[in-house]
Amino acid sequence: MRAIVTGGAGFIGSHLVDRLLGEGHYVTVVDNMSCGCLENLQHHSGNPRLTVHKVDIRDAGQLDRIFAGHDVVFHMAAQANIRESLVDHRSDLENNLIGTLNILEATHKNNIQDFVFASTSAVYGEATVRPTPEDYFPVQTSLYGASKLACEAYVEAYTEFAPIKFWAFRFANVVGERCKRGVIWDFVHKLLKNPSELEILGDGKQSKEYLYVKDCVDGMMIGYQRSSGKVNIFTLGMEEQTLVDRVAD
Length: 249
Hints:
Elements: E1 2-6, H1 11-22, E2 26-31, E3 50-54, H2 60-67, E4 72-75, H3 82-87, H4 91-109, E5 114-120, H5 143-161, E6 165-171, E7 173-175, H6 183-193, E8 207-208, E9 210-212, H7 213-226, E10 231-236, E11 242-243, H8 244-248
Parallel strand pairs: 1-2, 1-4, 2-3, 4-5, 5-6, 6-10, 7-9
Antiparallel strand pairs: 8-11
């Protein structure tokens, strides 16, 4: 199998690259290195089955050439900083929705039939039903979540006129090696600066579900390999939540 991985030098994307190369596949990474870095792929240096292109998915002109001859697209690239969305209201539109449209066009033009998309549990807003079913759609609470939901809608629409099968995986909070944001990263770096004290923002009673990155990739691959509908949508998360105080402990 020859796979495109957009955002393949990023946190989750690089772990997906690990998995695909480990299974013997050929992988082409497309990443503008704004969040990702070559260091995340350094352990694959010299692997003839890995090709890396420093390309922005907003640059549609370069994608057609790169996508030629591939079998599947794993679209992991995104602007995922919700705080940035509050300042730059166009960031999610341009990076996520328009970037995804460019990826879809390159997929369609090159007759690639499998499109796997890294979505987010943020599409559920402040969900009141847990575990949250995939058909649960409340009011949107972030531009990031809204952009990802719009991306899903665009890909689903493409399956109506193009021979494309669609897999969407809505991630919970993913943690693990190479992660450079979130409460665990924050705590570790605070302790490196001051090992005798740990500042906890808020009252410590905020809770989230945390999904280990290798389990996240396992979930993606199981869903991709074992479902074959025209549209396949899965939530990847944990039933239990963890308090910030517990993370600190």
